[in-house]
Amino acid sequence: MTIHNETAHDWPQLLLGWFRTHRRDLPWRTSPRDPYKVWVSEIMLQQTKVEAVRPYYENWLDHFPTVASLASATQEEVLRQWQGLGYYSRARNLHQAVCEVQARYGGKVPDREKDMLSLKGVGAYTAGAVLSIAYGRPVPAVDGNVLRIFSRLYLIEDNILSAKVKKEVTRLAQDVIPDDAPGDFNEALMDLGASICIPRHPRCQECPLVSCCLAHEKGRETELPVRIVKKDKPAVDITVLVVSDRQSWLIHRRPAKGLLASMWEFPNAVGKGNAGLDAAREVLKKAGIRAGSASGPVGTLRHVFSHKVWQMTIYTAPYANGTLLDKEDWQWLPQAGYTQVPWAGPHGKITAIV
């Protein structure tokens, strides 16, 4: 890997000067900085845009304003408040980690990197963000924005998704992070990557670092960073059978581990057409329920995960007979109370279709 080191080492001060004027007004940027609130915001911002996070963050703090309040909540309460943000393992991991903070550290978010990294769901980026922003520790927080900015600043021509590039960028960031303003430095990089040094077409004419950027000097800013294109995600056909009885829907809770763990869904099975309907009816049979003739399809949904795509076809059917054999993971949900359960991915959207 080739790293070009001609970039001026005083660029962090240029960045901080720009940040003082142009910093974004975000609800988690309170003063003084609360490590719990910083932590929550950083977990929510993983794989989710800032504007989408704002209302969820504010609602979350209304329900769980402190470590203690989140630690005392049930997983179902936590998932319900997270519903709509996706990637639900983030919420489960945060809940588990906060319970550990309550038990091991008396409700105080750890201020040492080793302790932060020991918590469920906390990686190097999250630890760096919390420690630098809330505690003033000079720890880098390297995410996609930072990798993109450094690849242009230092003309890094290797795949930024590789471990060796991330390790080298982390080293470079550690070398230049200012001891007196590490949190501002990391947040300034976040803001620069979100508004100026954006993917594909960076706004170099507005960038405070344009005089230090080797990619701009070489006219290669639109070529970088280099990313290896991922393979197409496999598509899975899913047949969903919405069974209703009077004003209630039959719903099922997914297993406690795996994709969308512990979230609620309508009965469904892998397959398409008659084969998919037969498979969905077999799921119902094992639950002790028989449905009447299916109507539909009444709609379709496409839901994209990080590793696959669900192509969902939705049918409706009336309850015919039977009694639920498992009343813990199956239930009749009053239609008027559809917001009272944490829905698995796209299943909440089905309530608007049927």
Word description of this protein:
The chain has 14 helices and eight strands. Strands 1, 2, 3, 4, 5, 6, 7 and 8 form an eight-stranded mixed β-sheet that branches. The chain is elongated, with a radius of gyration of 24 Å. The protein is 41% helix and 15% strand. It starts with 10 loop residues before the first helix and ends with a helix. It folds into three domains: 129 residues, Hypothetical protein, domain 2 (Endonuclease III, domain 1); 70 residues, Helix-hairpin-Helix base-excision DNA repair enzymes (C-terminal) (Endonuclease Iii, domain 2), CATH 1.10.1670.10; 116 residues, Nucleoside Triphosphate Pyrophosphohydrolase (Alpha-Beta Complex), CATH 3.90.79.10. It is of the alpha+beta class and 354 residues long.
